[in-house]
Amino acid sequence: MTTQWLEVGEHGEVVVVMKAELKTYYDSLVAERARMKQMIDAEEGERYELSVSTDASDEADKSLLASLREFTITRVDVGRQTLRLIEEALERLNQGAYGSCLNCGEPISPKRLSAIPWARYCVNCQELKEKGLLEDPEEQPAPAV
Ligand SMILES: [Zn+2]
What we know:
two-stranded antiparallel sheet
């Protein structure tokens, strides 16, 4: 894990710095990432089982299986999407850019970050986004290495 700020101390030594509140967000992001991965694995296992049980005897069983499969796929998709947002947020933590709205650059409120540590936008911009008034930068610029 490399989520730390490296700063040069007063004697020229490299000091690892992580603010307590950032550590909290980092911890919940990592915990949530593990939870999401587990969920996706479990759901995918289930999807596999659903796809191999083709011996549904009547139409009702078949349609039940179909909707179960649909439901599982949706959950996996949402999980994957969230996972991607979590990875992005961890990346921002690494770059020291965590907690700023990706649209307007204003700080995202701690209350919002506690609820959704992978939030990309402040409340205002999130509202715009939900109204379809904000272009979602799906493609993040590659981090400068
Ligand atoms: Zn904003």
